[in-house]
Amino acid sequence: MNLSIRKQKILCLLVARYIETAEPVSSGDIKNDYGEEISSATIRSELAALEKLGYLVQPHVSAGRIPTAKAYKLFVETIPTDGALVPQTVDLKTYLDNKMDDVADVIRSTAQVLSDTTNYTSVIVVKNVGNVRVKDIKLVDIGGDKALVIIITDSGILKDCIIDLPQNIGEGYLKTASDLLNRMFGGMTVDEIRAKMNSVDDELNAYKDILDQIIASLERYDGGDARVFVEGTSKLLDYPEYNGEVDNMRGVLSLLEHKEALTDMVSDTDLEFNFRIGKEDGIEHGSLVSATYRINGKQEVHAGVIGPERMDYKKVVGVLQYLEMTIKSILDDKESK
Amino acid sequence: MNLSIRKQKILCLLVARYIETAEPVSSGDIKNDYGEEISSATIRSELAALEKLGYLVQPHVSAGRIPTAKAYKLFVETIPTDGALVPQTVDLKTYLDNKMDDVADVIRSTAQVLSDTTNYTSVIVVKNVGNVRVKDIKLVDIGGDKALVIIITDSGILKDCIIDLPQNIGEGYLKTASDLLNRMFGGMTVDEIRAKMNSVDDELNAYKDILDQIIASLERYDGGDARVFVEGTSKLLDYPEYNGEVDNMRGVLSLLEHKEALTDMVSDTDLEFNFRIGKEDGIEHGSLVSATYRINGKQEVHAGVIGPERMDYKKVVGVLQYLEMTIKSILDDKESK
DNA sequence: GTTAGCAGTCGAGGGTTAGGAGTGCCAAAT
DNA sequence: ATTTGGCACTCCTAACCCTCGACTGCTAAC
């Protein structure tokens, strides 16, 4: 069921205007924006038709129309996703370059920039994807019968695994153990390691204990131990849809607190851009636009922007594209360094 | 300038009632709560006096009174801070015990529990305090001309420092370097290390590069690289002070986003309990109650609760005490294990 | 199919009013 | 000297009504 060209044009004009003003749009408004001469009566009949098709609603009979989620969804399809940059924003690159020390810092800064340039709440999720392959395993004695396990994988370094050692270990225990671990598991994925574990090996028995701990940790990492950063929550208050009716805010705010739900939302797509608009898409009284950047084949970065349904999708898409270019170019610099 | 017993009693009754109902309290209300027989006219004259002293305000002339920040401050002094437990809450201990794997997880869970049991937004800050003393330094080759530095200190393990190595290093470079580092700096505080650096040593020159990187990282850690967790933001919406006037929320919400400001607020006191009430204390339209637990002499945990000025201080103090006991007992278990 | 014209609808905003909650004050009582 | 009952006064709240005007839907003519 396709819309006529004119209906599409009217609908887009209406959406664009509503995004700007947050007030019901009348047939006269559209007439003004339309360009060519056209009577408001004609527009009215088109609007009535669009309403019947579910693209518009009227708050009350003597008001203009506002778009439904269905209308926004159609609108975002018209946004070009490959060139509409916004060069007038902050120079993201130099901003990020200055802070390239700690990964967490970088991501948080990025989220901050994203929130500041769009003036919406931003969320960034970094996630492992695909099977992590173990490259090297090191054991470091840290005293107190504990050891720190450092696992170098093809998608990064895992260094949050602390294991308990058996009571009285000998001198070369850790060395022997790590040699063994590397010999047996080097180059394997977690799945493969798990499989090999089942065909239990005598040689391993002495190290069964610590091995279990290491595998548990690896699985957590492999399973996508996503890191989530949310910035600019208070920007929600800038928009009348949350400023007037506070209850509208509850849905969005509690979504921002449920990091797992957020993660799922930004990452359950293969598309480069993902639009989630309205309740049916899991966001009551709000929208989420997210972009997925694949960093090195093994890590995904999802950058998202959350705001009212009446979000400035065009601007957001622009910023997200600009962000992608920036991230890519920074990583290239790092690479060649 | 001390208040008469009766004024104090009336003030406390008024505050308690206002905390419960969020509505201006009249002389008749107090009369009902008072216990002994007393006329409302008497109470009225006391209320007028209290208003003159700055403890109360009237929204308008024919309404009851509501407490000022000054009144709340006096009120919280009457709360016993050493026994008023709230045993009917969730069994914090078993809840936390189950999740004792990852430190970040534990803290986040704790914040969650704190928020859920109080029904306010919670914040937990973990901070190093005093001078960190280096016990052991390890260097681990992680490929790509980089090494991971693991520094074991008396207040925990620092494992977020990745350094760039010089281009072409020899076989035993890392071993030699870490031996040297330990010999020179083992047992010293960061301040001492920095001092020693100045009296530059020939032996060091070969390692000057990596040393600088390590010290920078140590300083960040030593300077109190606080970890901050905020949970239950959306609970703010449960309270009419934020539900009606959204602008009241802006101050609190943006405070929750500024982790450094939050950190300062919960930690700039030596008291066990810290009450910050109202704008003069840095929280517009809100209050913060925080407790400080010293974990092992080297780390401080600050647990805080943020809500409207009209917060249920008694309940919050109870929960925070209960939390302290729980944390202590969990750590004791760990200790003896 | 498009347009002008017109009647109809309904919300927003302003003014008015009645009701009631709560105070301040005063004079009498303790 | 404090406490108390009584009473006049204030002023918010909610309800109601009204008007104004912004839009629409419809119809008949183009």
What's the number of domains of chain A?
Answer: 3
The CATH first-level class of the largest domain in chain A comes to Alpha Beta
Strand content of chain A: 15-25%
Oligomer: homodimer
Number of strands of chain A: 10
How would you describe what is shown here?
The structure is a homodimer of 337-residue chains. The first copy, chain A, is 47% helix and 19% strand. With 337 residues, chain A is α+β, with helices and mostly antiparallel strands. Chain A has three domains: 5-77, Winged helix-like DNA-binding domain superfamily/Winged helix DNA-binding domain (Arc Repressor Mutant, subunit A, Orthogonal Bundle), CATH 1.10.10; 92-129 and 225-336, Beta-Lactamase, CATH 3.30.450; 134-222, Enolase-like, domain 1 (2-Layer Sandwich). In chain A, strands 7-3-10-9-8 form a five-stranded antiparallel β-sheet, sandwiched between helices. In chain A, strands 4-5-6 form a three-stranded antiparallel β-sheet. In chain A, strand 9 and strand 10 form a beta hairpin. The first copy, chain A, is elongated and about 90 Å long. The interface between A and B is medium-sized, with 30 and 30 residues. Chain A binds a DNA duplex (30 and 30 nucleotides) through residues 24, 26-28, 38-42, 44-45, 47-48, 58-64.
